[in-house]
Design brief:
- By secondary structure, the protein is mostly helical.
- It has a domain at 45-74.
- It is 56% helix and 0% strand.
- It has one helix and no strands.
- It has one helix at 31-75.
């Protein structure tokens, strides 16, 4: 067993690999249409940025868990040493 992050990526939801689609462009030519688009696009960007932070957190916790398991395995059963 190694201390690598093998298997940690499997904890990330598969649909995240596709990415976050942009908001659809407005059909109208009115200022309000473009304001609504910009608001929706900002929401999509927030979602994408959140996934990045969440993914980093998942991988970090997984790697820490794996490292702790490897360290515990190396200690063995003998409590003196």
């Amino acid at each position: 067993m190694t201390a690598s992050g093998a298997g940690c990526a499997s904890l990330i939801p598969a649909e995240w690999a596709v990415g976050v689609p942009g908001a659809p462009l407005p059909e109208g030519n009115q200022v309000g249409d473009w304001i609504a688009f910009a608001d929706a696009q900002t929401g999509q960007l927030d979602k994408a940025n959140g996934r990045t932070a969440d993914t980093i957190g998942i991988i970090e916790r997984c790697e820490k868990r794996d490292a702790a398991a490897v360290a515990a395995q190396r200690r063995g059963w003998w409590p003196f040493g």
